[in-house]
């Protein structure tokens, strides 16, 4: 795994330092621009270049690479040969994610007329040399982490040390590009591409991806449908059982008709138990009582008649 550590000055008015490592081995050091362009940020409602809001300075914190793409021909003049997408993992970066900064772009691009690194639209601009070294390592299948932190001040008692060297940022104005060439449009498109891969259930080309909202939403949708089916089935059974006991077991036998037929044929009590024997004995008792009464009436009439004659 390779890692890139960027240390930014607190005011973000000068370049940051960049250190590229492969494990514990330092591969390259240099300078980078981790400062948003105030004019562009102001146009987009972030006049202070607040890192927590879109178009502001890149937030400090930890990131993990999500994707790497060759820049298109029309993008190369601003972003260089490759564009890298990182997702927030910790620190201020996560707080910024909650405010809509769902990713961070890292790229290259030509310097200004004064040969200094140009500011950005909210991302990180590496020197072309540093970007090439990163792309070469990632092309071998390695993954990558990114850490952005403030340049630590040297304690007063370490008087023999010098502060890290930084350089001015270029005075060449960065153009406020319009979609689809502006940084935010490119970031959104790369995220949508990863969402489509996730929703299709195929492996992503990126070294490390999360399940984005589209695939999570579809899974949730299926879960809700299943719950609804179970709820509907349960509701149906409750409805059938609400018929005063006459249709108990109807859910299993298929409906009201079969339940009433079974009830008339076998005798079913309110608890669903077959009561044919009880019903038969009761019916026989009634019939027997009626017959006995009729016989008694007949015999009484016969006795009365004989006496008259």
Which features does this protein show?
309 residues; alpha+beta; L,D-transpeptidase catalytic domain-like; 8-stranded mixed beta barrel; 9 helices; 40% helix
Task: Please outline the helices and strands.
Layout: E1 2-8, E2 16-22, E3 25-33, H1 38-43, E4 61-70, H2 76-79, E5 82-90, H3 92-98, E6 104-107, E7 124-126, H4 128-138, E8 144-150, H5 183-200, H6 213-241, H7 250-253, H8 256-266, H9 276-308
Parallel strand pairs: 1-8, 6-7
Antiparallel strand pairs: 1-2, 2-3, 3-7, 4-5, 4-8, 5-6
Any overview of this molecule?
With 309 residues, the chain is α+β, with helices and mostly antiparallel strands. It has one domain: L,D-transpeptidase catalytic domain-like (Beta Barrel). The protein has nine helices and eight strands. It has an eight-stranded mixed β-barrel. β1 and β2 form a beta hairpin. It is globular.
- Let me know the number of strands: 8
CATH superfamily grouping: L,D-transpeptidase catalytic domain-like
Shape: globular
CATH topology: L,D-transpeptidase catalytic domain-like
Going by CATH, the architecture would be Beta Barrel
Whole-angstrom Rg: 41 Å
> What is the total domain count?
1
Give the strand order of the largest sheet, numbering strands 1, 2, ... along the chain.
1-2-3-7-6-5-4-8
Query: Any low-confidence stretches, pLDDT <50, length ≥5?
Result: 201-296, 298-309
How does the helix and strand content classify structurally? alpha+beta
């Amino acid at each position: 795994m390779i890692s890139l550590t960027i240390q930014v000055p607190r005011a973000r008015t000068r370049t940051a330092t960049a250190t590229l490592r492969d494990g514990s081995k330092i591969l390259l050091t240099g300078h980078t621009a981790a400062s948003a362009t105030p004019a562009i940020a102001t146009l987009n409602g972030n006049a202070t270049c607040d890192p927590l809001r879109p178009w502001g300075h890149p937030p400090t914190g930890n990131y993990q690479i999500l994707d790497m793409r060759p820049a298109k021909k029309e993008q190369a003049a601003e972003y260089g040969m490759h564009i890298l997408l990182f997702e927030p993992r910790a620190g201020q970066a996560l707080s910024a994610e909650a405010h809509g900064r769902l990713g961070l772009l890292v790229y290259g691009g030509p310097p200004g007329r004064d040969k200094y690194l140009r500011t950005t639209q909210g991302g990180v601009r590496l020197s072309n040399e540093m970007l090439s070294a990163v792309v070469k390592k990632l092309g071998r299948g390695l993954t990558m982490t990114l850490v952005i932190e403030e340049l630590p001040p040297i304690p007063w008692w370490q008087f023999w040390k010098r502060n890290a060297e930084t350089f001015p940022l270029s005075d060449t104005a960065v153009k406020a590009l319009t979609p689809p060439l502006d940084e935010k449009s490119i970031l959104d498109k790369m995220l949508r591409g990863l969402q489509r891969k996730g929703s299709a259930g195929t492996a992503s080309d990126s070294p490390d991806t999360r399940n984005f909202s589209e695939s999570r939403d579809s899974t949730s949708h299926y879960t809700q449908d299943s719950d609804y089916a179970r709820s509907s089935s349960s509701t149906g059974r409750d409805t059938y059982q609400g018929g005063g006991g006459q249709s108990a077991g109807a859910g299993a036998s298929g409906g009201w008709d079969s339940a009433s037929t079974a009830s008339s044929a076998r005798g079913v009590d309110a608890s669903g138990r077959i009561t044919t024997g009880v019903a038969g004995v009761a019916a026989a008792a009634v019939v027997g009582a009626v017959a006995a009464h009729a016989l008694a009436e007949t015999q009484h009439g016969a006795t009365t008649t004989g006496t008259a004659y």
